Amino acid sequence: MVDAVNSPEKAYSRLLINRVSNQYNICDEDIYTRIQGVLDYISGMTDIYALDLYRKINGDSIPAV
What we know:
The protein is mainly alpha-helical. It has helices at 2-6, 11-18, 31-43, 47-58. It is globular.
């Protein structure tokens, strides 16, 4: 996520950034504020949400049959 806010012009970065709620300041001019927003976002995740996001990012969102 930190790489995404440092390089928002990349397509993959845009996909990650669009998942983050607007309440987090990850599009600010200041790099410190963007990284703090990422940390706030990640620290506020529940275990289930973090696991779900990880699976979606890695393409594992479809459960195994």
